[in-house]
Amino acid sequence: MKWQNALKDYKHYLKIERGLSKNSITNYEYDINKLIDYLETNNITVSPINISNEVIQPFIYDVSKNVNPRSQSRLISGLRSFFSYLVFEDYRTTNPLDLIESPKIGRKLPDTLSIEEIDSLINAIDLSKPEGQRNKAILETLYSCGLRVSELTNLKISDLFFEEGFIKVTGKGDKQRFVPIGPSTQKYITIYIKEIRSHITISPLYKDTLFLNRRGKQLTRAMIFTIIKQLAEKIGLNKNISPHTFRHSFATHLLENGADLRAIQLMLGHESITTTEIYMHVDRSHLKEVLTKYHPRK
């Protein structure tokens, strides 16, 4: 089918020309498949290549009943990108999403943990179990390096440059950056490698992967979520937290302690400074202190 060839070409374009990660490409493909499922479910016999605005509008309305505005906006954006590509490659002449507006969504401020809450979570880890040392190294790395969960699970032993005080992180779009890592976190990772990881029978595919499960394979993102959720329940923390909460806390605490936004951007691997600027909204009291301390007309 012609649209299947178009979808294959589009995925190739996302990977080669836009340099998107496998996860991002999967999300774009998911949006398109959602539309195709809608057409099939409602017996609408039209190819996605020839679909009109009149068909797209009921689809968006149908989807909006089951998702929040942020998810709806992401879906519209994903489909708009696909149809823009089809126009550019002469598969069709117009974009059926041109007249459809995305819902207005407010900028969501990230949840953060206090230093005391992070300490409580880490101290709640049962170090008498083999996975305890691993989990401690995981949480220390998430917080001290500000990693995304996928960056953590993909971290390699060959990415550790402890003598130089850095780790090499592969982020979105397979872009690499070097992030500083402190002596304390280095210590916990070293303990895990020497005392726990060295006693695991490691699958050949994961010889270089840093954090492993008991079967010697790479940890899943879901497992990291589970570890953190269980620790939060254990200490009675009434916050909806995830691995990303440690990343947000890392950036917020750096800002509160005087780090400049550009440095935080580089460590987080944000392509645009605008993304990093969200942390300027987290603690306005800190900004007032900066003004009072440094402005000549205080």
UniProtKB/TrEMBL annotation:
Where the record annotates domain Core-binding (CB), the positions are: 1-87
Locate the coiled-coil region(s) and give their ranges: none
User: Which residues are named in the active-site annotation?
Assistant: R148, K172, H244, R247, H270, Y279
Query: Where's it mainly located?
Result: cytoplasm
Query: Cellular location of this protein?
Result: Cytoplasm
- Please provide, in alphabetical order, the Gene Ontology terms of the cellular component aspect for this entry: cytoplasm
Q: Which PROSITE patterns match?
A: CB (PS51900), TYR_RECOMBINASE (PS51898)
Q: GO molecular function, one example?
A: DNA binding
What InterPro entries does the entry give? Answer: CB, DNA_brk_join_enz, Integrase-like_cat_sf, Integrase_catalytic, Integrase_recombinase_N, Integrase_SAM-like_N, Recomb_XerD, Tyrosine_recombinase_XerC/XerD
Q: Where does the UniProt annotation place the signal sequence?
A: none
Instruction: Give the Tyr recombinase domain ranges.
Output: 108-292
| A biological process from GO | cell division
Spell out the Gene3D superfamilies in the cross-references.
1.10.150.130, Intergrase catalytic core
Q: Does the keyword DNA-binding apply?
A: yes
| SUPFAM superfamilies according to UniProt | DNA breaking-rejoining enzymes (SSF56349)
Which Pfam families does the record associate with it? Phage_int_SAM_1, Phage_integrase
Q: Does the keyword Cell division apply?
A: yes
- Keyword terms, alphabetized: Cell cycle, Cell division, Chromosome partition, Cytoplasm, DNA integration, DNA recombination, DNA-binding
Q: What quaternary structure, including any partners, is listed in this protein's UniProt entry?
A: Forms a cyclic heterotetrameric complex composed of two molecules of XerC and two molecules of XerD.
Family (UniProt): Belongs to the 'phage' integrase family. XerC subfamily. Belongs to the 'phage' integrase family. XerD subfamily.
The record describes the protein's role as: Site-specific tyrosine recombinase, which acts by catalyzing the cutting and rejoining of the recombining DNA molecules. The XerC-XerD complex is essential to convert dimers of the bacterial chromosome into monomers to permit their segregation at cell division. It also contributes to the segregational stability of plasmids.
Full protein name: Tyrosine recombinase XerC
Organism of provenance: Aquaticitalea lipolytica
**What are the leading ranks of the lineage?**
Bacteria, Pseudomonadati, Bacteroidota, Flavobacteriia, Flavobacteriales
This chain is encoded by the gene named xerD
